[in-house]
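Predict fold of histidine kinase; 448 aa.
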Amino acid sequence: MTRLSLRLRLALAGAVAVTLAIVVSSLGLAALFGAHVERRALAELSVQLDQVLAGVERGTDGALELATDPADPRFRRVYGGLYWQIAAEGQVLRSRSLWDYEIPLPADTLGDGAEHVHTLVGPVDQPLLAIERSVTLPARLGGGVMRAAVAMDRTALAVARADFLRDLAPYSAVLAAALIAAGWAQIAVGLRPLGAIRARVADIRSGRERRLGADFPAEVQPLAAEVDDLLAAREQEVERARTRAGDLAHGLKTPLQALMGEAGRLRAGGRGAAADAVEEIACAMRAHVDRELARTRVAMRGRQARADLADAVAGLLRVIRRTEDGARLDWRVDLPEGLIAAADSADLSEALGALIENAARHARSCVEIAGRPSGQQIEIVIRDDGPGIAPDRIEALMARGARADTRGSGLGLAIARDIVEALDGTLDLSAADPGLAALLTLPGADPS
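Predicted 3D structure, encoded as tokens:
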């Protein structure tokens, strides 16, 4: 259950609650209907009992008899489901429907005109609903007490209740489906602010927004406010960390310069081997410092910056075409307008410049630069037609200080990768036919 989505949990809980409510209400309605039907049945039995009592007379032999039978034909059909019985003066009179069966009335005491309602067992084990009344015979009938009862088969009541439930079932099902659908719609509307928060967090991650904001319902707003406070605190901590890193990198540049000067004095004093060792260590340290400075600068500019890819490439080519390598090459550029990267223009130029310079240095006759949008990102491909590099050496080439030949410092590709990764992008090198291809992926930004 813990792995189910909140929407599905609420939907399942709502569906179960609606189903239980419909079932309970249906059973309650059936019980009310059964009680109503039983009251109506008792009212009819009371009328039937009045008719039976009104028909009691003295026969020619002086015995009590029912001179007028009730009109309902079920009284005359054997085990027909409707029965009357009279007990007086030591004799028991029965309807034809009882045949030879005597209703087992309880031996309770009734006042004159009082009625009792009983649930009894009738002929062929029929469950009976009976109403019993005690009356005093008038003087013309000789006086005395007479107990009369009228009963009916309760099976008809149970059948009526079952029929009611059967007729109610489809309407209950439709009502349950409608309530479940309404609950699902209510859940969708109620959880919509969470979707808005998710979209706003994605905007913050991509740099389009800085905070969640305050335009949320009252129940969600405290969460948004806490997240905004957390973002503000994190920005302050990151800013302090970046400042300390930048200060540390700048602080190391002066000692490094001193080391390089010391190496020069050692070489002038005839200690060339020691000078080379010091310069090697100083260059390695400077590589670390330059990379950290580049990463810190990119991070401090944040994700709010915007840079036009076509403008950045055009500016770089104006410079590179004036160099010895750039002037001899055919530059093929395919960059549609409106490709905006979520990066500072200087950082984008530095990363692209390192890749373009590397391509110009190794290309034989042509360098291709192409770009296209890919969802929320921008893909840039820089391909040269040079000798290329073995696939197993590509990863090593991206390491700090590594280079494919003896020209250059070997820091360009590593710094370019650091800048791209600081911008939440990727840089991949792959062997082309011929040459080497660099695939640069950066987060895109709205042209506005």
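The first strand starts at residue 56 and ends at 58.
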